Amino acid sequence: MAYTPSMTRLIQELSKLPGIGEKTAARLAFHILRADGGLADGLAAALKALKEQTRLCRTCHGLTEVDPCPICASGERAADVICVVEEPADLIAIERSRGFRGRYHVLQGALSPLDGVGPEDLQIGGLLQRLRGDTVREVILATNPTVEGEATALYLARLIKPLGVRVTRIAHGIPMGGDVEYADVVTLGRALDGRRDM
Amino acid sequence: MAYTPSMTRLIQELSKLPGIGEKTAARLAFHILRADGGLADGLAAALKALKEQTRLCRTCHGLTEVDPCPICASGERAADVICVVEEPADLIAIERSRGFRGRYHVLQGALSPLDGVGPEDLQIGGLLQRLRGDTVREVILATNPTVEGEATALYLARLIKPLGVRVTRIAHGIPMGGDVEYADVVTLGRALDGRRDM
Asked: CATH number of B76-171: 3.40.1360.10, 2.40.30.10, 3.90.1300.10, 3.30.460.80?
């Protein structure tokens, strides 16, 4: 005898989450068991609601509960600039910075031949569609500064430039509050390349 | 705009779990969203099942889906020795060691006057009830070697000894695979006090 069957089941389900091993899952399961029933009920209901209510915007492929999403539908957001990101989480991070008032396009991933992710697996067709007509004047590529994200940015730049749309890439360099001494060589190189007149 | 309402709700619920802050909760929520629906469904169903099926054994107050629990009901477990632990998780840890073939009693906590936990908040009455009659010959106190666990063990020892039952405390010392050099002074003191002839 170890756990009860229902405890074992919850531990197994929790272990499927990223970064949660069996020990952590057991700790969480015991916490849920000790807490009054509201915690288990609240979590179960929230999981159900997420699955039923959250979907992807058909225009930008970001998360939304209404289609088109509030950003695509908003008249207050600049329609002439589209910021391209890999994942919905990236969109949310940029929104939090309050540094961007245009619209988004979520690729739902990045090119990764080793993982079998090619252009046809990303939301690239929809992006090109949005660039037809004369509305969009700039596409900001905000994919991650990883091998995959850089390859995706290069691929998109080659595809979009011939359409006569300005293509920009977000800046990379020493993070604010970071330390030049401890920055890695690639980041330092990027910071030097991207230097600006003061 | 940040998350969708249902994402925000799931993140809030996940943040209630111990050791899970808002950032981790968001990461988990995005993972659940990206995974096929089975993960959310499986978790929600497991939470529901845990709440409906797992309860406490009325004899030992350990977790069970049947009352009395399999250990209390088993004829193969020694009925003359009871191991007293603080939490159901402690019972499971001892079961895993395969070092004990008697029965258990789960106190559901430890004495902690600062947190307002007194003897009446623990499952002590039920334990004393089980010691009436002549069946039980030994009570092993396996509460944690913390201030609260030690106080609880002392309190129980004073209560049980007058009943003519042998009261023992699990050994404390250098953990197996541990290093004498790095052991803390309290553990080292305990290890010396508890030395045995070889």
From this structure: 3.40.1360.10
